[in-house]
Specification:
This protein is mainly alpha-helical. The chain contains 6 helices and no strands. The two termini are 55 Å apart.
């Protein structure tokens, strides 16, 4: 019903006024008239995060997390424990 009222009012009043009177969103009208083109094919791979760990750093972190001392701890607990033990904060601030 809204589409029929809008179609009758638009030629007389214009898009904005017809939308206001019929209750149809102007964004919907424009989206239907100018749809975004379909993109076919696979999506491009996302860019790696600037602070992403290298494979070597990742292996070191996983080795610590999987060690018998920390196997039952959350990463935040491991980080706090290592800081308490005197580990340098500079190396671990990146992982918070």
């Amino acid at each position: 019903m809204i589409d029929e009222v809008f179609a009758a009012l638009e030629p007389l009043l214009g898009v904005s006024a017809a939308c206001a009177l019929s209750g149809k969103s102007r964004a919907t009208v424009h989206r239907h008239r100018h749809p975004a083109p379909l993109v076919l094919g696979p999506r491009p791979a996302p860019a790696p995060h600037p602070a992403a760990l290298s494979e070597q750093e990742r292996a070191q972190v996983l080795a610590v997390l999987r060690s018998p001392r920390f196997v039952d701890k959350a990463p935040a607990q491991v980080w706090a424990t290592l800081l308490d033990d005197g580990a340098e904060e500079q190396g671990y601030s990146r992982y918070r």
